[in-house]
Amino acid sequence: MTMFKKNPSLMVFIGLLAIFTLAVTFMSEAYGTGALSTSFVKTLGKTLCLALVAIAMDLVWGYTGILSLGHFAFFGLGGYMIGMWLMYARTEIIVVESMANAALPPTPSEISDAIGTQIFGVVGSSDFPLIWTFAHSFWAQIALVVLVPGLLALVFGWLAFRSRVTGVYLSILTQAMTLALSLYLFQNDSGLRGNNGLSGLQNLPGADAISQDNISIWFFWASAFALLLTYLIAAFIVSGKFGSVIRGIRDDEARVRFLGYSVEGFKLFIFTLTAVIAAIGGALYYPQAGIINPAEIAPIASIYLAVWVAIGGRGRIYGAAIGAGFVSLVSTYFTGGQAPDINLGFYTIKWVDWWLVLLGLSFVLVTLFAPKGIGGLFDLITHRMSPNRHGLPLGPDKGSLREEEAEK
Amino acid sequence: MSNTGTLLEVSGISVSFDGFKAINNLSFEIGPAEMRAIIGPNGAGKTTFMDIVTGKTKPDEGKVLWGELSRNLIGMNEAKIARAGIGRKFQRPTVFEDQTVFENLLMAVKNDRNPLKVLFFRPKFKDLAKVEELASEIGLSDQLERKSGELSHGQKQWLEIGMLLAQDPKLLLVDEPAAGMTLGEREHTTDILKEAAKTRAVVVVEHDMEFVRRLDCKVTVLHEGSVLAEGSLDHVTQNQDVIDVYLGR
Predict the structure, then answer these.
(1) Measured between alpha carbons, how far is A99 from A93 in angstroms, rounded to an integer?
(2) B103 in contact with A, Cβ within 8 Å
(3) A245, A396, A407: residue with CB nearest B118
(4) A117-169 residue pLDDT tens
(5) How far B70 CA sits from the closest chain A CA (Å)?
(6) Among A329, A269, A382, residue whose Cα is nearest residue A48
(7) FRET label pair with A58: which of A113, A267, A320, A332, CA 20 to 30 Å apart?
(8) B107–A403: do the CB atoms touch at under 8 Å?
(9) Inter-chain contact B87–A258, Cβ cutoff 8 Å?
(10) What DSSP assignment string belongs to A367-399?
(11) A361 Cα to chain B: minimum distance (Å)
(12) Can you list the pairs that B189-198 forms with residues at least 24 positions away whose Cβ atoms lie under 8 Å?
C-alpha cells in the first residue's frame, strides 16, 4: 500500500508503540513488577493522548497550513462530554445506595433531585440544565464526544473559511473561540459547574471494587490504541492525493483553487476531522487526569499544542507525536518539583518558575535554527538531506513550509 | 465541438481599482481551438482581464459568457470556473515546490475534485498513463521523482503548462510564458503551446514581440483597458494607434 511505502516511519512507530505499551504493562503495579507507580502510568497514558492531539494539530497546521490556536477547545469539550456521564452515573450509584435505607423507596424524581443537588450544590443549584439531558446514557455521551466538537468545528470552520480568513487572522479567530468557550464555562450558570469543573472522573461508575492500578493500565492501553489509530488515519490521509492537495493548500492556496479544487471544502474537512480526533483524545485524557475545569481550554493550552508540534517538527506525523511526548514529559519533570534547583549563590533557579522561560527559549531557538524540530534529527540518521533551495518559503502563503523544513 | 461558435465572449467588462479604470468596456471573443496573443504596454489590463475570466476579480459591470450554453462566469468562484474548463498559468512559475513532478501532475489530472473522492482516490492505469504522456510532452519524463522545487526556471514553467494540460481545459490562459527563458527553452515552449492550440483555445499574454511572432497567430492589442487593434501581427504593428502607444514614447 502507498501508505506504508510513503511513510517508512509508520512500521517503526507501530513497533515502538507496541514495545512501549508492553514495557509499561510489565512494569505496572497491576500487571507487572510495579516499577512504575500508578500515577506515573497515568502520566504516560495522558502523554499518549497529548501525542494524539498533536498529530491532529500537525494535520491541520503542518500539512494544511492552518495555524489553529483553538484545537484544545475541542480536546476539552471531548473531556467535558465524557465527564458528564462519569459524574452522573457515579453520583447516581452513590445516591441510590444512600437512599436504599430510607423507609419509603425513593421515586425517580427524588433520585434525580438528589443527584442534581450532589452535582450542582457547589454552584448553588440543584436543577439539571438542559445540556445534561443525555448524561444518564453512556452511549449518548460517547456520541456527543464526537458530535459537539465536530459541529462546533464545522460551523466555525464554515464561517471562517467561506470568508477566506487565513493566516494570522484565522489564528486570532481560533484563539477568540477557545477564550470565549472557556470564559463561558467559568460561569456558574453555564451548567457545567463553573470553575469547579467536573471532578472524580478517575472513578469509573460501578467499578469501585477495581483498583486504580488496573484502571490506569486499561486507560493506558486505550490511549495507545487510539494513538495508533490516529497515526494510521493521519498516514492514510497524507499519503494519497488528498495529502498532495492539502500540502498544496499550505504552500499556495490560490494555485490549488485554479486547479479546480474547492480549497474551503478541503480545509473544512481537515479542520472538522482533526477537531473530532482532538475530542476523542480529550475523552481519554480527562478520566486519567480525574478532573476537568475551564482553565484546561484557556487560550494558552492551544498555543502549547502549536509549540509541541513546532519543537517536534511540523509536516511529519511522528514529529508531532515526539514533540508532544517529549515536551509534556519534560514539563512534568520540571514543574513537578522533581528537578533540582540550581543555586547560583546570588540567585536560586527554581525550575517551577523558570520552566516556561526555558520552553519559550527552546521554541525560539528551534524556530530559528532547527525548523525541522526533533523530527529533523532522524534525517541525519537516514541521510535524508533537504535540497538546497536558498532558504525561502516554499509558497506564497503564510502557512507554507520553509525550505529547511521540507523533506526530500 | 463545433469550430464555428465562440468559446469565450467577453462583453462590456469594466473594473476600476480606487478610481483607476483597469478595464474599460472591454469586449472580445475567442473561438474554440484558436491561438490568440494579447499584447499591450504595462498597465493595459492584460493580467486584470485574466483575473476576471478566472474569477479572481469581480468586474463592476459586463458579462463573461462561456461555452456552447453561454453560461455567465461572473459570480462563480475560481475552483468552479477551473472545473468548467478554464486553466490558468501565472506569470511567475507556481508549482508545488515541496512535491515531486509526479505528484504535481497527478494532482492536476482531470478527476473528481470532491474532498471525499480525493481522499479515497487511487491512481488508475489511465491516470498514470496520462501523467507519463504529459511528462514526455513537456520534456520532464526522467524528472518525475524529483521535487519540483529543484527544477530549473524553464522546467518549472513547462511543468506548470503540463499541469494545465492535465486539467484538460477548453481554454488555456497563459501569462508571459517565455519570461526569463533561454532561446532554446522558448522554442520548446512555443512548440508545447502550438500543439495545445490544435485541440483547444490558448490565450497568451506576452510582452515579447519576438515570441509573439513565433506563435504566428491572431493578435489583440490592449491599451488602457480596452481593445486597440486586432489582427495578424504584421497588421497590428502597422496600425498607427499601436505605433503611437508602443513606439511613440
Answers:
(1) 10
(2) yes
(3) A245
(4) 999 988 888 888 889 999 999 999 999 999 999 999 999 999 999 999 988 99
(5) 20
(6) A329
(7) A332
(8) no
(9) yes
(10) HHH-TTTTTHHHHHHHT------TT-BSSSSTT
(11) 29
(12) B189/B154, B189/B157, B189/B158, B189/B161, B190/B214, B190/B215, B192/B137, B192/B138, B192/B158, B192/B161, B193/B35, B193/B161, B194/B35, B195/B137, B196/B161, B196/B165, B196/B172, B197/B33, B197/B34, B197/B35, B198/B33
Paired with B36 in beta bridges are B203, B218
Please report the ipTM that was assigned to this predicted complex. Answer: 0.88
In whole angstroms, what is the distance from residue A145 CA to residue A138 CA? 11
| pTM of the predicted protein model | 0.91
C-alpha cell read off for A179: 477564550
User: What is residue A236's predicted lDDT score, i.e. its pLDDT?
Assistant: 94
CA distance B136 to B132: 6
pLDDT tens readout for residues A275-334: 999 999 999 999 999 999 999 999 999 999 999 999 999 888 999 999 999 999 998 888
Q: Which of B83, B116, B150 sits opposite A260 (nearest CB)?
A: B83
C-beta of residue B177 within 8 angstroms of C-beta of residue B89:
yes
Q: Torsions phi, psi of B74, nearest 5?
A: -65, 130
Which pLDDT value is given to residue B3?
46
**Other C-beta atoms lying within 10 Å of the C-beta of residue A222:** 17
Domain contains B113: yes
**Alpha helix (H) ranges present in chain B?**
46-53, 78-84, 101-108, 115-119, 125-137, 153-166, 183-196, 209-215, 233-238, 240-246
User: Which DSSP symbol is given to B138?
Assistant: T
Choose, out of B51, B91, B97, B112, the residue to mutate when testing the contact with A (most A CBs < 10 Å): B97
Q: How many CB pairs under 8 A join A and B?
A: 99
Q: Which residues of chain B have pLDDT under 50?
A: 1-3, 249
**Residue B1 falls within a domain, yes or no?**
no
Element at B181 (helix H, strand E): none
Q: Give the structural domain span for B23.
A: 8-246
pLDDT category, A1, cuts 50, 70, 90? Answer: low
C-alpha cell at A135: 448524561
Considering only alpha carbons, which residue of chain A is nearest residue B96? A248
Longest pairwise C-alpha distance within chain A: 83
> Considering the domain boundaries, does residue B2 fall inside one?
no
The region that residue A229 occupies, defined by phi over 0 for left and psi between -120 and 50 for alpha, beta otherwise, is: alpha
**For residue range A362-382, what is the model confidence (pLDDT) as tens digits?**
889 988 888 888 888 887 777
- The pLDDT, as a whole number, for residue B1 is 41
- Would B192 be classed as within a structural domain? yes
The residue of chain B nearest to residue A387, with distances taken between CA atoms, is B150
What mean pLDDT is predicted for residues A188-195? 89
Q: Cell 525548523: give the residue.
A: A371
Please answer whether residues B189 and B158 qualify as being in contact, where contact means their C-beta atoms are separated by less than 8 angstroms: yes
* Best A259, A400, A405 residue to mutate vs chain B (most B CBs within 10 Å): A259
Q: How confident is the model at residue A407 (pLDDT cuts 50, 70, 90)?
A: low
Cell of A391: 532558504
Are B79 and A244 in contact (CB < 8 Å)?
A: no
Q: What's the residue count for chain A?
A: 408
Nine cell digits for residue B48:
486584470
- Test B98 with A263 for CB contact under 8 angstroms: no
Considering its fold, how many domains does chain B have in total? 1
B147: helix, coil or strand? strand
**Summary mean pLDDT of chain A:** 90
Cβ separation B90–A406 shorter than 8 A: no
Q: Is the pLDDT of residue A189 over 50?
A: yes
> Cα-flanking dihedrals φ and ψ of residue B237, to 5°?
-75, -15
